[in-house]
Structures are given as C-alpha cells and as structure tokens.
C-alpha cells in the first residue's frame, strides 16, 4: 500500500483534523513509499523502534509519538537517536493521540470498555467519537473492591484503588484512558460512582474522598494498549497488510 494513502485512510477514519491536540496527529516521520509491514505499539520508544528494525517494518504506528507541545525543538540526544533510527532504516512514524482516544469503535476508551465488559452509555463531554470522558455500566454486582479485582484481572495489572466513603454496588462508571485523573470532578458531576483512568496525582486522593467517588488508577500504559492494536488490525484487514503489535513493558 502507498504510504500516503495509508495515512489518508487513518486520518479519515479517526477524523484527526477535528481535534485540538498537544502534538502532531498523523505522519510524523516519512519513510519508504510502499508499506507492507506495520508495527504498532503504545509509545515510539527506542525499544519499539529496535523491534521494528529487526522485523523490517515499513511503518510504526503509535499512540504516543513525538513533537509534543512545549518540548525542546532541538533534535539531540534521545530524540536524535530515535529519529535517526527511523531515517536510517527508511521507516515511517505515524501517531494519533486524542483521535485514537475518542474513536467510537477502535479508540482506547472504546477498547477499554470492551475489555472490561462495560455497557457504553455515552460521553459526558460530547458525542461518541469526539468526547473523552466515557460513561456506562459495569458488570452487575460489583462494589469498589470487586471492580478493582475485575479491572486487575482483565488488564493483567492491579489498579490502585482510592475508596470513597460508603460502599455498595456500583451502578455507573466513568473512564478516560491515560493521564486523565483531573476529569474526576466531571465524572462525579455526570453521576458516576467510580472513575477509571491511568494515572493518579496527590490531589486525586482527596478529590475522590471528598467528592464521594471511587477512583482506580489502572496504569497509563495498561489502559492505552488496545486502541492502537485495533487500528493496526483494521489496517491489516482492510488493506491486506502485515501487522504486529509489540507491548514494551511499562509499569506506569
């Protein structure tokens, strides 16, 4: 498949131009024109790039690419080594941040709901496909600790649970993958009994307790492994490409 046609297909599918983001969505580094092998991963770290070189990938597709807002623009040190690896091996880098979080079928939030058996009811901050704070119902009969066990089993990573005062069955859950802990107030205002994201800040504990909402920090990496896999599988299925997902271990 032609590289630019592949990029255009992903841009269109994810409606990438709709989002005001902290980074460049789409093609970040251009490699060879023809793409047969696509490697996906969460972050375009050096370990993932080394795997791509060994597999002879034509294109690397990630959720966390390069060129973030306010980062130094000089291409030196670690950034130089990463980009040099791509250029020397003629490998393209394609990255989607918020568009991949929001997509209603292949996105991180949609895929997390599927892995956790949540019934999706909508978003608190927009329509499905544009909103980032998702709402729904967990499997029945789960209290806060039961939900934490369920999440840990499904993601193969024990979440950090902050229990709010009181207990009982959780009827409504909110979630946003990655570093969205500061959406906890909006989650409570939307009627959620529990909120799941990837990271936790010092203030999150106090907010959870005082707002009366359980908080689960399930891991930035762990909650964002599935969207990029789904997008890679879509490319392989729709455009007859070879696809391989590589999960570079990350406890954060």
TrEMBL record:
It comes from the Bacteria. Coiled coil: none annotated. SUPFAM superfamilies: NIF3 (NGG1p interacting factor 3)-like. Keywords: Metal-binding. Pfam families: DUF34_NIF3 (PF01784). Belongs to the GTP cyclohydrolase I type 2/NIF3 family. This is Nif3-like dinuclear metal center hexameric protein. It comes from Halomonas flagellata.
